[in-house]
């Protein structure tokens, strides 16, 4: 297992470097951000001073070398916009996004498993049809519209929840509900399809014929085999949430990394953008490794092989362990 | 001999499922348990009360550095709340009111002398005096910090600042500057302990409020300064939050989560709680008057005739905006009340275009109309209407919507020069109150945002800048008239109004400065 982890980490390093270099270069191709940070009637001297002060007049390779040198010292630069260390800004915002993404995905998976499994029990039945329609609608509704409608109905008209903000536990409800829709809708379809396939397998018939309850058949037999495709899709959806649910964060004032990243792009705040991309990329790679581990736990056929370490049990060892092994001749 | 083994002696195969499920449940539970509060956030002190005023902004202040206070996003919190200048412009009358300075006069061609209060301390307990004032001005204007107020108000010119005694300060300029006190109204006074090598994020000032706590990303709380030299403000605390979406800001006011919401649009849903007020913004098309066909004054005049300004403000802004005839609205020194808005006359516009075409002017050349996404409410709609109206009179106009950085390439020198004639949709705000702040950058031959001028016009502008009183007012009025008759670099569209959402729990009357400088001392509990 550790060999597997080591290999995955090493193989993730190159794409990570490519991502960082790519974002660094692309950001600087947008030009000098001096105009964004200086008054409109700033003189040429002021623009020159700004450019020199921030190193934008250095060759790109020099800037990149300085940046990577800083990264190795855990110095990600300073925000042009706020003057704060970029690393601090990003590390402050990221946990809020992780919380939102984590809770949303957990709920989405649990609900999708329940609804998808229920729908799969009777394909084309009433439950199946309703859940198909609802899940496709959920996967298609734009976040922005849903968020505004949610505020209008549940916050303004009914007064059940706050309009926005992070002030209370009820502040979570609308952002999660909005963010949940698409992953729930997609996962219901995936789980339903995989469960229909699993439930038609011979071992299911065998389990039923042996008297297993329907709950046991679904949860202990069919679901495990249906989990792999759902895990793949859930992983992709989770990656999207980790990138930052920009619309939800913007509308509800959620202090997450999605809005921070968008603002840093629009404001050409290079240091913050690079730090945010670095942190997000590392998280995504970590998530992919976790997904691979999840696969291995679900399916013994894809576990890292231990064939190289087959053990011979000597008679003496077997005796100690009270194994009934006859000595070879 | 045979070997045999019974199934019962085989090692039990491990079933990882319970372990995996257990880990998953534990992880999920941890997440759920942790979800009682969002990372790095504190609960709001939050409901409406006589001690707390809750304000929602459109964005978090990037910094509270006082020398950046001319930036709306910073100034709306800092100016006259945390820090104060020597003098302050009254947005209603346009006059300068005493603040940290009680008196001021021109004591030479290039020198002004200020008499300062002797009863003021900074929030850190240090005394305010002439030395502190000199330090603050020096830091904002003369240092290498690259302060925004330096560029916006003073340009390249440094000031010579001298503390004559504890309460007397002299400020000298390179050349005569009759509006120096007005310029100094943008310099927020900070104590000498303020960092001179770097901008500060949370300032110390002399104002009626001090920073209590800033939960970056979530909210900012100010608390009343118990040692404030002036009248104590009504509210003990002010809490700022921010929401990018105008409809959400309006919803916070209508649902009682906020007392004031800034920067709303007419359609954001504030309803009866929305207050219109004339802000200082003017929208116009700036025409590259040296590139054909815009180099022909008839074409520029035709553009002015072609725009239905009243129709635009009625249909897009519910009639709240005011059709414009010049770059500055009423209340700004130099505003010409006698200037007529260009009449909406498609026939006249078409005739001018046809006349130019007949004289060989390439009126079919593509004109690119450049506008900035989300610059102001319904900017896209306005841009499309403008494009349609200019196309109707026979011009070939293509609309290009761009983001802020791209827009600035068209807006500022060096301008984009390889795209032919440009009609740039601009929004100009004169928060200073004097036309000089507008015409210097927009109308001189070398102005930062001016694409066209003439030596004669430059002379008019230079002569006006050193005048005072009524002479100054008249000179700038003549300048705006001359622009419309002889230069026609612009097609003015409307003086905009802002909308503030105000809950019934507070009393506040917005003014032209409210968007740039929301004075907490002017907000009181209702009734």
Description:
- Chain A is mostly helical.
- Chain A has 14 helices and no strands.
- Chain A has helices at 2-29, 34-37, 44-53, 60-72, 86-121, 126-140, 143-157, 173-199, 202-209, 214-242, 246-252, 257-266, 270-298, 315-321.
- Chain A starts with a helix and ends in an 8-residue tail after the last helix.
- The model of chain A is unreliable at 306-310 and 325-329 (pLDDT under 50).
- With 527 residues, chain B is of the alpha+beta class.
- Chain B has helices at residues 16-34, 72-78, 130-142, 148-154, 180-184, 246-254, 297-306, 309-317, 346-358, 379-392, 404-411, 436-442, 455-465, 469-487, and strands at residues 52-57, 87-89, 96-98, 101-106, 111-116, 160-165, 168-172, 209-215, 219-224, 237-242, 260-264, 274-287, 322-323, 366-372, 396-402, 422-429, 490-502, 506-507, 524-525.
- The chains are: A mainly alpha (329), B alpha+beta (527).
- At the A-B interface, α3, α5, α7, α11 and α12 of A face α1, α4, α6 and α11 of B.
| Content of β-strand of chain A | under 5%
Radius of gyration of chain B: 29 Å
Query: Structural class of the secondary structure composition of chain B?
Result: alpha+beta
> What order do the SSEs of chain A take from the amino end to the carboxyl end, as H and E?
HHHHHHHHHHHHHH
* Number of alpha- plus pi-helical segments of chain A: 14
Structural class of chain A: mainly alpha
Mean pLDDT score of chain A, rounded? 84
The major β-sheet of chain A equals:
none
Helicity of chain B, as a percent range: 25-40%
Q: Beta-strand level of the residues of chain B, as a percent range?
A: 15-25%
Specify the oligomeric state: heterodimer
> How does the major sheet of chain B shape up?
11 strands, mixed
Global Rg of chain A: 26 Å
The stretches of 5 or more residues of chain A where confidence is low (pLDDT under 50) are 306-310, 325-329
Basic shape of chain A: flat
Point out poorly predicted stretches of chain B.
Answer: 1-20
Kindly, what is the distance between the CA atoms of the first and last residues of chain B, rounded to a whole number of angstroms? 105 Å
Largest interface: A-B, 68 and 67 residues
| Extended strand count of chain B | 19
Please work out how many helical segments of chain B DSSP would assign.
14
């Amino acid at each position: 297992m550790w060999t597997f982890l080591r290999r995955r980490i090493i193989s993730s390093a190159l794409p990570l470097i490519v991502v960082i270099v790519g974002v660094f270069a692309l950001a600087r191709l947008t030009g000098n951000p001096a105009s964004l940070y200086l008054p409109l009637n700033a003189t040429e001297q002021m623009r020159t001073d700004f450019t020199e002060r921030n190193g934008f007049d250095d060759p790109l390779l020099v800037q990149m070398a300085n940046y990577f040198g800083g990264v190795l010292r855990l110095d990600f630069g300073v925000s042009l916009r706020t003057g704060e260390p970029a690393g601090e800004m990003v590390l402050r915002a990221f946990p809020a996004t992780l919380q939102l993404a984590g809770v949303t995905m957990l709920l989405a998976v649990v609900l999708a498993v329940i609804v998808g499994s229920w729908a799969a029990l009777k394909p084309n039945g009433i439950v199946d049809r309703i859940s198909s329609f609802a899940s496709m609608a959920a996967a298609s509704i734009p976040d922005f519209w849903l968020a505004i409608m949610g505020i209008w109905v549940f916050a303004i008209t009914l007064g059940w929840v706050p309009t926005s903000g992070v002030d209370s536990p009820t502040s979570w409800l609308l952002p999660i509900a909005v963010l949940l829709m698409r992953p729930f809708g997609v996962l219901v379809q995936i789980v339903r399809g995989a469960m229909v396939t699993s439930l038609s397998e011979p071992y299911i018939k065998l389990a039923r014929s042996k008297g297993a309850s329907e709950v046991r058949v679904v949860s202990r037999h069919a679901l495990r085999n249906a989990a792999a495709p759902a895990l793949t899709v859930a992983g992709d959806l989770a990656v999207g949430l980790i990138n930052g649910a920009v619309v939800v964060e913007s509308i509800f004032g959620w202090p997450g990394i999605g809005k921070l990243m968008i603002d840093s792009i629009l404001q050409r705040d290079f240091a913050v953008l690079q730090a945010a991309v670095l942190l997000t990329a590392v998280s995504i790679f970590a998530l992919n490794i976790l997904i691979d581990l999840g696969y291995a736990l679900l399916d013994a056929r894809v576990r890292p092989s231990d064939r190289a370490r087959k053990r011979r049990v000597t008679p003496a060892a077997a005796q100690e362990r009270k194994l009934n092994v006859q000595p070879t001749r | 001999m045979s070997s045999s083994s019974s199934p019962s002696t085989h090692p039990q195969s491990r079933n990882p499922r319970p372990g995996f499920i257990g880990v998953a449940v534990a992880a999920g539970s941890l997440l759920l348990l942790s979800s009682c509060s969002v990372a790095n956030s504190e609960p709001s002190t939050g409901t409406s009360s006589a001690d707390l005023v809750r304000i929602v902004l459109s964005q978090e202040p990037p910094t509270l550095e006082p020398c950046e206070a001319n930036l709306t996003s910073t100034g709306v919190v800092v100016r006259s709340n945390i820090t104060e200048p020597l003098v302050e412009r009254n947005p209603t009358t346009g006059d300068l009111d005493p603040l940290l300075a009680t008196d001021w006069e021109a004591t030479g061609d290039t020198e002004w002398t200020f008499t300062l209060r002797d009863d003021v301390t900074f929030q850190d307990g240090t005394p305010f005096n002439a030395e502190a004032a000199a330090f603050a001005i020096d830091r904002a204007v003369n240092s290498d910090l690259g302060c925004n107020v330096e560029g916006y108000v003073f340009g390249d010119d440094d000031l010579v600042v001298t503390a004559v005694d504890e309460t007397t300060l002299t400020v000298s300029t390179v050349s005569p500057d009759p509006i120096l006190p007005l310029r100094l109204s943008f310099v927020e006074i900070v104590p000498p302990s303020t960092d001179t090598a770097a901008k500060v994020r949370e300032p110390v000032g002399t104002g009626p409020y001090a920073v209590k706590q800033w939960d970056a990303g979530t909210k900012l709380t100010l608390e009343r300064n118990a040692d404030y030299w002036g009248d104590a403000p009504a509210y003990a605390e002010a809490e700022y939050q921010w929401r990018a979406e105008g409809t959400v800001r309006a919803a916070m006011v209508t649902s009682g989560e906020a007392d004031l919401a800034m920067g709303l649009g007419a359609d954001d849903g504030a309803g009866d709680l929305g207050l219109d007020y004339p802000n200082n913004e003017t929208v116009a098309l700036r025409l590259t008057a040296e590139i054909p066909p815009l180099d022909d004054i008839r074409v520029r005049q035709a553009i002015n005739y072609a725009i239905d300004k009243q129709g635009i403000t009625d249909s897009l802004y519910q009639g709240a905006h005011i059709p414009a005839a010049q770059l500055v609205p009423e209340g700004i020194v130099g505003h010409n009340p006698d200037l007529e808005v260009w009449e909406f006359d498609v026939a006249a516009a078409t005739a001018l275009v046809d006349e130019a075409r007949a004289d060989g002017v390439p009126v079919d050349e593509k004109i690119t109309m450049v506008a900035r996404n989300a610059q102001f409410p319904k900017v896209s709609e306005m841009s499309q209407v403008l494009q349609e109206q200019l196309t109707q009179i026979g011009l070939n106009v293509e609309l290009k919507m761009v983001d802020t950085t791209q827009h600035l390439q068209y807006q500022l020198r060096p301008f984009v020069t390889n795209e032919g004639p440009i009609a740039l949709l601009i929004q100009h705000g004169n928060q200073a109150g004097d036309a000089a702040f507008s015409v210097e950058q927009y109308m001189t031959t070398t102005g930062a945002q001016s694409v066209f001028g003439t030596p004669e016009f430059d002379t008019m502008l230079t002569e006006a800048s050193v005048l005072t009183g009524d002479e100054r007012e008249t000179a700038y009025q003549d300048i705006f008239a001359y622009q419309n008759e002889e230069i026609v670099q612009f097609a003015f569209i409307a003086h905009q109004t802002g909308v503030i959402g105000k809950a019934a729990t507070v009393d506040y009357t917005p003014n032209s400065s409210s968007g740039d400088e929301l004075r907490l001392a002017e907000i009181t509990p209702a009734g």
